[in-house]
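step 4 of 6: structure.
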Amino acid sequence: QQQVKQSPQSLIVQKGGISIINCAYENTAFDYFPWYQQFPGKGPALLIAIRPDVSEKKEGRFTISFNKSAKQFSLHIMDSQPGDSATYFCAASFSNYQLIWGAGTKLIIKP
Amino acid sequence: NAGVTQTPKFQVLKTGQSMTLQCAQDMNHEYMSWYRQDPGMGLRLIHYSVGAGITDQGEVPNGYNVSRSTTEDFPLRLLSAAPSQTSVYFCASRTHPGQGSYNEQFFGPGTRLTVL
């Protein structure tokens, strides 16, 4: 019930395409769903986050889609660029504020 | 404002050796934590602290000790290094829940540890 399952493990997308990474969770008590972006040799950094009271949040080319009934949320990167190549982690947390992390997706954008 | 800093960046240890990974933050964050990152396993919480003098165990605490004598510093001690502790270690900090951005964590650059 504590797990957050992330897929795919790796993803290759052509420049200009749409990158989609999916996460699923079991615990309905989760109330915060962030996505973190990590470049090689760096620590993860918050990219975008959503609360379950909305179904979508958009920041520039990055969008989180949230499906509460299916207990799934996804990250969409529109017009993917080579600079978006990184590892992406989804996570979830609830009132004790501990983040439960997905296993990560290594995204490669081909020029 | 340096954010979260970690030293060293790289370390090689022999089995049985001990060492301390240093972590400091200058954002006056109350909450600090240590994670290890292994391929295909995401980030796993080792220990965390909600303020000076208060620490608690995370998901994978065995073989590690922590202390929090000041708000700024949160060192991680490996008592007797084992090859299974070969990993990349990240320190993170955030504001106390209820203050500022909800639950955003700020990560340091990491320490890559190899235990032979």
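step 5 of 6: annotate
 - The interface with chain B takes residues 6, 9, 32, 34, 41-46, 49, 51, 89, 93, 97-99, 101-104 of chain A (CB under 8 Å).
 - DSSP finds no helices and eleven strands in chain A.
step 6 of 6: archive
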